[in-house]
């Protein structure tokens, strides 16, 4: 992963986040991330009106899909763990963090395109290759979602084999 950790807190911008996670194009939602500690992060995600996902959900009434809020939190948490968690940095090369389960979600308000969604994220290592990720998403200090997911680290080869069988 990386060598020495910077002192907490430290900030990552979009390009630095992109160096850590594989997401690209319209599925890459992260704008910035503050790594407050090895398991605590604050991040911002945004969906521009011209994003193809937004254009299709819903035509004439664009709303950010709830699944995109889940994905944004997972991306921010993944980047934060890779950048700031000493344990994650000891994991072998060739592992990919994947969303393994959506445990609990509550969507409280719709999120409109071009709004900065601020995430407060907390992670807890459950097993050597499993992390519980909990977060609250806000737009202009209004809570829009509470999210609780499970991320797991899987070998790239294992994922490729699973895809070939699908």
- The CATH class is Alpha Beta
The CATH architecture classification is Roll
Could you please say which CATH topology applies here?
Thiol Ester Dehydrase, Chain A
Indicate the structural class: alpha+beta
Whole-number total of structural domains: 1
| Shape designation | globular
Give me the strand/helix succession: EHEEHHEEEEH
Keywords:
seven-stranded antiparallel sheet, 24% helix, 40% strand, globular
SSE diagram, text form:
Elements: E1 10-13, H1 14-20, E2 30-37, E3 40-45, H2 52-55, H3 66-84, E4 95-107, E5 117-127, E6 130-139, E7 142-155, H4 156-165
Antiparallel strand pairs: 1-2, 2-3, 3-5, 4-7, 5-6, 6-7
Short description:
The protein is α+β, with helices and mostly antiparallel strands and 166 residues long.
Structure description:
The protein is 24% helix and 40% strand. With 166 residues, the chain is of the alpha+beta class. The longest helix has 19 residues, at 66-84. It has a single domain (10-165), classed as Hotdog Thioesterase (Thiol Ester Dehydrase, Chain A, Roll). The chain has four helices and seven strands, in the order βαββααββββα.
């Amino acid at each position: 992963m990386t060598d020495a950790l910077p002192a907490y807190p430290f900030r990552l911008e979009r390009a630095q986040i992109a160096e850590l996670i594989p997401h690209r194009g319209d599925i890459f939602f992260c704008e910035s991330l503050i790594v407050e500690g090895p398991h605590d992060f604050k991040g911002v995600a945004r969906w521009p009106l011209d994003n193809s996902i937004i254009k299709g959900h819903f035509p004439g009434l664009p709303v950010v899909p709830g699944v995109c809020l889940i994905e944004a939190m997972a991306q921010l948490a993944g980047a934060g763990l890779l950048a700031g968690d000493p344990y994650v940095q000891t994991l072998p090369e060739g592992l990919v963090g994947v969303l393994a389960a959506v445990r609990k979600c509550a969507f409280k308000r719709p999120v409109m395109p071009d709004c900065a969604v601020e995430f407060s994220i907390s992670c807890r290592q459950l097993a050597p290759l499993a992390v519980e990720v909990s977060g609250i998403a806000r737009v202009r200090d209004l809570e829009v979602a509470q999210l609780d997911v499970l991320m797991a680290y899987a070998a790239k080869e294992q994922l490729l084999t699973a895809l070939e069988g699908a």
